[in-house]
């Protein structure tokens, strides 16, 4: 029986037939691996997802964590799942050998972890945050900090969080008020409050490693004065044993519409002991290492939720008899499965285009990370980084918008049953609705894309993406037929985007350009996904069978029904419209 979490056939296609991940084993970093080890990890994560994570997905939604004023209680199944994951040595599956990690390619690790996210996005969140936390400290922490905090996280004894937001600041990190007072012994004492901190209080692990942004008094104003600190729930003794409770106090739990199974907290720091990470006043640059990883993690979580919703609605559509063909004349004729109705096919095709396109984008980004880590020259690393930089805001925001739409369509395919709690798809929608906000809204990602990534180094990232698109267009054109037609459509749309982008900045009206940055992000994202789909079509060239035909038709759908949506957005951007800028508060 096929899984309704993810499609292993699709993952195999994306990893091996398209991205050719097994070719990475020719690089020194991944030389100890083979397709056999890659498949073993994918198999293991699928098994863990089915056995430990999926069974309590609905229960953890219905019985969310509770706080009695002293202790946070989480259902037992969450700890069982986390323990199973860590006992399989999967927390460090993408981390370096010298830390005790498996040093798997990130593309394989992300594909494997997608099973966990699809099964239970809430419980997977504890792991995702821990891995990102450990990766940051592995890169910027001292040897002592790595030994004290990273290795216990890899072993599953500790878990990790990121504590950025504050009630009065939200995403405007320049305005955080949490302060860190230096002490004579080299530690700091932190005072302040953090809001919306996922996974920051529970009894699931022996300790919780909070990575906290704070300002050291006397430092520069704004974001240049932000430093990063390790603030554990419990202090750790020199022998690695757990010491006394730190002054990190939970003020309460936030109750969300979705992803209810992971604690979401308000934390107060009342003289909590903190340890500086790296240099003072460089905390935001360090945190961006974790934030960028978390952004791609949020994107993958959105894909996973969209994907499982799609597969469940596909199963339902095949099994649910209702109605007859529109041209049928005999009312006594047997009803047909709803998948035979054109509009249901439309909704399923849209979902397929969104979730398989989103999965491909995130695995492509993960491969770029692998190429970064294994680059043999600085020039190679720089070229890959330019491409990854410009794709990261798309990798976070596009799946969060369109795989959420896939969940909406999955509900619609189910009809009235879709919005009942007896079926999974209503929960998937609620869970996924958080992702357009997690790790930066569409507005924040769009400002990052248009205001930073597109213009950085004189447009080098945009040029790098353009070169990659041209390479795909050339390959698709050589394939001929419909593939060449799709290539022409993509090239025409991309050239229009470049033309509009150039004109926007040439106008000198930066306020108007950035005021419409979300429209830019949405058009940009659709063009990127069209490119990703064209790459998949090229990989299908010369191959026959239902799977490959399904890929071709999903690509055809995207190019005919979705890519044209970029036209009105690019028209708006070309006008440098100032409506939102000129609108006044009193007119609402």
Q: What is the radius of gyration computed over CA atoms, rounded to a whole number of angstroms?
A: 24 Å
Task: Work out the helix count.
Answer: 19
**Biggest β-sheet: count, sense, barrel?**
7 strands, mixed
First CA to last CA: what distance? Answer: 54 Å
Overall shape: it is globular
- The structure class reads alpha+beta
Name the helicity range: 55-70%
Low-confidence stretches: none
Number of strands: 11
Plain-language structure description:
With 588 residues, the protein is α+β, with helices and mostly antiparallel strands. Helix content is 56%, strand content 11%. The protein has 19 helices and eleven strands. Strands 3, 4, 5, 6, 7, 10 and 11 form a seven-stranded mixed sheet that branches. A two-stranded antiparallel sheet has the order 1-2. It has a two-stranded antiparallel sheet with strand order 8-9. β1 and β2 form a beta hairpin. The longest helix has 37 residues, at 283-319.
Write the layout of secondary structure elements.
Elements: H1 8-18, H2 35-53, H3 57-62, E1 66-67, E2 72-73, H4 76-87, H5 106-119, H6 121-140, H7 143-154, E3 158-163, E4 179-182, E5 188-198, E6 207-215, E7 226-232, E8 234-236, E9 242-245, E10 248-253, E11 264-276, H8 283-319, H9 342-373, H10 378-414, H11 425-432, H12 442-453, H13 456-479, H14 481-506, H15 510-515, H16 517-540, H17 546-562, H18 566-574, H19 579-582
Parallel strand pairs: 3-6
Antiparallel strand pairs: 1-2, 4-5, 5-11, 6-7, 7-11, 8-9, 10-11
Helix pairs in contact: 2-4, 2-5, 5-6, 5-8, 5-9, 6-7, 6-8, 8-9, 8-10, 8-11, 9-10, 9-16, 9-17, 10-11, 10-12, 10-13, 10-16, 12-16, 13-14, 13-16, 14-16, 14-18, 16-17, 16-18
């Amino acid at each position: 029986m096929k899984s309704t979490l993810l499609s292993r056939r699709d993952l195999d296609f994306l990893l091996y037939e398209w991205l050719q991940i097994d070719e990475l084993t020719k690089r020194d970093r991944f030389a100890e691996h083979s397709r056999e080890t890659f498949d073993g990890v994918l198999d293991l994560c699928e098994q863990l997802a089915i056995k430990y994570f999926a069974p309590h997905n609905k229960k953890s939604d219905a019985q969310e964590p509770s706080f009695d004023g002293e202790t946070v209680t989480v259902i037992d199944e969450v700890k069982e799942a986390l323990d199973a994951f860590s006992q399989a040595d999967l927390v460090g599956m993408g981390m370096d050998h010298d830390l005790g990690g498996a040093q798997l390619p990130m593309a394989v690790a992300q594909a494997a972890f997608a099973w966990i996210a699809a099964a239970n996005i809430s419980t997977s969140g504890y792991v995702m945050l821990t891995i990102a936390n450990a990766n940051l400290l592995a890169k910027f922490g001292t040897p002592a900090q790595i030994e004290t905090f990273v290795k216990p996280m890899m072993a599953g004894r500790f878990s990790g969080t990121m504590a950025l937001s504050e009630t009065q600041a939200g995403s405007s990190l320049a305005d955080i008020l949490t302060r860190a007072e230096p002490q004579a012994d080299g530690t700091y004492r932190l005072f302040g409050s953090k809001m919306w901190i996922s996974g920051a209080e529970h009894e699931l692990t022996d300790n919780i490693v909070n990575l906290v942004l704070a300002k050291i008094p006397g430092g520069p104003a704004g974001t240049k004065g932000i430093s990063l600190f390790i603030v554990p729930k419990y202090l750790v003794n020199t022998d690695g044993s757990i010491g006394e409770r730190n002054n990190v106090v939970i003020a309460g739990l936030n109750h969300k519409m979705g992803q209810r199974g992971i604690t979401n907290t308000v934390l107060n720091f009342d003289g909590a002991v903190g340890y500086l990470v790296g240099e003072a006043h460089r905390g935001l640059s360090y945190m961006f290492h974790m934030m960028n990883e978390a952004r791609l993690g949020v994107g993958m979580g959105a894909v996973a939720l969209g994907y499982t919703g799609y597969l469940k609605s596909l199963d339902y559509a095949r099994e649910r008899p209702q109605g007859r063909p529109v041209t049928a004349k005999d009312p006594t004729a047997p009803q047909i499965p709803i998948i035979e109705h054109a509009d249901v096919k439309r909704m399923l095709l849209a979902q397929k285009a969104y979730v398989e396109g989103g999965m491909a984008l995130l695995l492509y980004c993960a491969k770029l990370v692998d190429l970064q880590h294994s680059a043999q020259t600085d020039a190679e690393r720089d070229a890959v980084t330019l491409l990854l930089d410009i794709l990261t805001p798309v990798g976070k925001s596009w799946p969060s918008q369109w795989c959420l739409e896939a969940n909406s369509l999955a509900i619609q395919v189910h009809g009235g049953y879709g919005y009942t709690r007896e079926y999974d798809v209503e929960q998937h929608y609620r869970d996924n609705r958080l992702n357009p906000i997690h790790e930066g809204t569409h507005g924040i990602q769009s400002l990052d894309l248009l205001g930073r990534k597109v213009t950085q180094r004189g447009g080098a990232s945009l040029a790098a993406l353009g070169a990659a698109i041209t390479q795909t267009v050339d390959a698709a054109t050589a394939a001929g037929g419909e593939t060449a037609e799709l290539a022409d459509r993509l090239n025409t749309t991309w050239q229009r985007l470049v033309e509009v982008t150039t004109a926007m900045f040439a106008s000198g009206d930066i306020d108007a350009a950035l005021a419409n940055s979300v429209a830019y992000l949405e058009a940009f994202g659709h063009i990127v996904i069209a490119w990703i789909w064209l790459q998949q079509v090229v990989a299908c060239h010369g191959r026959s069978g239902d799977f490959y035909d399904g890929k071709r038709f999903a690509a055809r759908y995207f190019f005919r029904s979705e890519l044209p949506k970029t036209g009105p957005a690019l028209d708006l951007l070309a006008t440098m419209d100032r409506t939102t800028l000129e609108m006044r508060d009193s007119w609402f």
